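Exam prep: given the inputs below (a chain plus pantoate), describe the expected output before reading on.
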Amino acid sequence: MKVVSTIKEVRDAVREWRKEGLTVGFVPTMGYLHEGHKSLIDKAVEENDRVVVSIFVNPTQFGPNEDLESYPRDLERDSSLCSDSGVNVIFTPQREEMYPEGFCTSINMTGLTENLCGKSRPVHFGGVCTVVTKLFNIVAPDKAYFGQKDAQQLAIIKRMVSDLNLNIEVVGCPIIREEDGLAKSSRNTYLSKEERRAAVILSKSLKLGLEAINSGERNSRNIIELIKGNIESEKLAKIDYVQIVDLLSMKDVETIEKPVLVAIAVYIGKTRLIDNFIFEI
Ligand code: PAF
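Solution:
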């Protein structure tokens, strides 16, 4: 496995593979890899001849008061996870490699980006779309792998790939959870012992919502109230949003008649965690 930091080195490696007629899978990440990332990497390794993982804490997707500086980083641990998993190249650029002086272009998507996480993180998805487009252009993979935990991000990337005719198959992979149900996330590392205990309220509350839908409830407001009520029973939790949206448009739905995403964002102490499930009708 090679660890490279320049765009040229990635392109050179991919060019050699292409000469041999090999397929390329790509897993974009911000590092501090956990079993969620590992599941994407494993799928990429299974489905492609060669795999590139990018590790880049992308500054343009963080708002001014967010955790860009404190975002956890551990390249050594990430490298051994990648190497053990069969990754061929890690691309870990410096900020200047991705955003050289004078950089002034961005991808602006409307519609899917304003609801849910877009409400409290207004610059986030513009930054994600811009960096992912750049990474797609650098790696030029056949397939790229994203986790369902960031469900809105996944919907946005799929839409962007379709709208911009990017020749890449976007593969969504299921949420990986801790034993008690907490969705794996690099940000879980911010939680104190007490907060970690409290954080299980997210998945527990979603489970209640799913049970209600499975029992025939179709009124979004009733399901949302049920989920909110349960989250509020945890004193360390503060709700950012609990919403039920159309799976493709990310717009709120009043009645569940088509596939929906039930998505929540909750602060546990200062840490903002997200979780969701999809209900296919
Ligand atoms: O999901 C993430 O880790 C990031 O948003 C991504 C896709 C790597 C872009 O920086």
